[in-house]
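Sequence in, structure out. Go.
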Amino acid sequence: MSDIALFTSDVVKDVQFPISYRGGVEVSVIENFVARAGITVEPITFSGGFGYSGDFWAVNVAVQRHENRVLGYSPAIDFKVIW
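Output:
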C-alpha cells in the first residue's frame, strides 16, 4: 500500500485455541529504522517492537503481552548478519 508502512494479516489455527485473526503494521520511522505493532484475537496478545538494519547486519527488539498472567510479557531480540 505504501513505501512507509507494511500492513499484514492472517488467520491461524492452534490446536489449543479456536481460529484466530492476527494483524500488524510495520512503519518506517527513519531510514533503516522501523517500528512494529501487532495483535492476535484468540488468545488475546499484543506485541510491539523496532528494528534497525545496516548494509550487512540487522537487529530487532520486540515484546509480546499475553492474556495469561503466568506468561505476562515475553521479550525477544535477534541479531542478523547478512553475507
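Check: The beta strands are 5-12, 20-30, 33-41, 44-53, 57-66, 73-81. The chain has a mean pLDDT of 91.
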